[in-house]
């Protein structure tokens, strides 16, 4: 397990992590607020965490081509949680995944991903310079771009067993076909 103590508050980690990942060519795909998983009142207020799902396609491709069982460990998940008054960032070690898969020979393939994760955690844990937003975002009239969107609370598409999106079936009943 790779772990670092961060200087940021728990509610600041998402933005910091998003910027660090972008600098390293990785993407933040999703955010799970662990406190929202439990029914109201069942989680002690002192326990809270966020889990960030991250992807770096180049490193993942090498691991998956070496052994498809790495799919069980990818995409990587970075946990951010409060512990003892400090925020800790933690991620499972890709090299340890090699050992769990009985493939220590693939540690050299996992090493670049492990180094990247270590760099990301170290950078995200340190104080960040407040860089001004690029001028293109400030003057653009297109609204929010992908890097400005939050994946927190996203709802997955509902697809039935035939691959049809449930939302696409709406409005196809006979009562709609006759028109007005």
Give your account of this protein's structure.
- The protein has 180 residues and is an alpha+beta fold.
- The protein has a single domain (2-131, 152-173), classed as TT1751-like domain (TATA-Binding Protein), CATH 3.30.310.
- It is 31% helix and 18% strand.
- The chain contains six helices and five strands; from the N terminus they run E-H-E-E-H-E-E-H-H-H-H.
- A five-stranded antiparallel sheet has the order 1-5-4-3-2, covered by helices on one side.
- A hairpin with a 2-residue loop joins strand 4 and strand 5.
- It is globular and about 45 Å long.
- 20% of the residues are buried.
- The model is unreliable at 132-140 (pLDDT under 50).
Describe how the helices and strands are arranged.
Elements: E1 2-6, H1 13-23, E2 27-33, E3 49-55, H2 57-66, E4 76-83, E5 86-91, H3 94-100, H4 107-125, H5 135-139, H6 174-177
Helix pairs in contact: 1-4, 2-4, 3-4
């Amino acid at each position: 397990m790779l772990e670092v103590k961060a200087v940021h508050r728990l509610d600041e980690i998402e933005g910091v992590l998003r910027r660090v990942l972008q600098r390293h060519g990785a993407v933040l795909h999703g955010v799970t607020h662990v406190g929202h998983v439990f029914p109201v009142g069942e989680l002690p207020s002192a326990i809270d965490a966020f889990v960030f799902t991250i992807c770096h396609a180049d490193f993942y491709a090498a691991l998956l081509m070496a052994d498809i069982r790495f799919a069980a460990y990818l995409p990587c998940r970075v946990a951010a949680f409060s512990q003892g008054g400090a925020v800790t960032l933690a991620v499972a070690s890709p090299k340890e995944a090699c050992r769990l898969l009985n493939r220590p020979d693939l540690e050299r393939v996992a090493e670049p991903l492990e180094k990247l994760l270590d760099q990301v955690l170290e950078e995200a844990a340190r104080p960040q310079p407040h860089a001004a937003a690029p001028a293109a975002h400030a003057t653009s009239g297109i609204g929010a771009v992908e890097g400005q969107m939050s994946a927190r609370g996203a709802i997955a598409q509902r697809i039935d067993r035939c691959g049809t999106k449930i939302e696409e079936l709406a409005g196809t009943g006979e009562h709609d076909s006759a028109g007005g």
